[in-house]
Specification:
The chain is of the alpha+beta class. The chain has two helices and seven strands. Strands 1, 2, 3, 4, 5, 6 and 7 form a seven-stranded mixed beta sheet that branches.
Length: about 140
């Protein structure tokens, strides 16, 4: 089998761009890769779960904030090779907007969770800056 046709293990994830009052909600990663770095809330899609349900679940698990599935709009699919140092990951990103800032609680994989002004973001893990940039296209 040539390298062009060999099978590749692909992991499926969902990420959330939650907006409110000119801010985006970010989590500080508790674990590697990128431990201590800021990232969008998100994570693996569980067996039998759709990416939208994973986005809703991961947001709640990492920040304590619940947003109903029907409030989300898909931003896009991000699948560039090398976007995650652990291997090949494909993510579906979703966005929702809250009417006001809601206090997050860092839970699960998050060491911290806070709202950041869109015009003063920290460096972001993975390709999350690319996902945010897709919001303005």
């Amino acid at each position: 089998m040539s390298p062009e046709t060999r099978d590749e293990t692909i992991r499926y994830t969902a990420d959330v761009v939650l907006l409110a009052a000119g801010h985006v909600l970010l989590i500080q990663r508790r674990w590697n890769p990128y431990a201590g770095s800021w990232a969008l809330p998100g994570g693996h899609v569980d067996v039998g779960e759709a990416s939208l349900q994973a986005a809703v679940r991961e947001l709640k698990e990492e920040t304590g904030i619940t947003v109903p599935a029907d409030a989300f709009v898909q931003v896009g699919v991000f699948d560039a090779p090398g976007r995650d140092p652990r291997g090949r990951y494909v993510t579906v990103a979703y966005t929702a907007t809250l009417p006001e800032l809601t206090a997050p609680t860092a839970l699960d994989d998050a060491a911290d969770a806070r709202w950041w002004p869109l015009n003063a973001l920290p460096p972001l893990a993975f390709d999350h800056a690319t996902i945010l940039a897709a919001m303005t296209r």
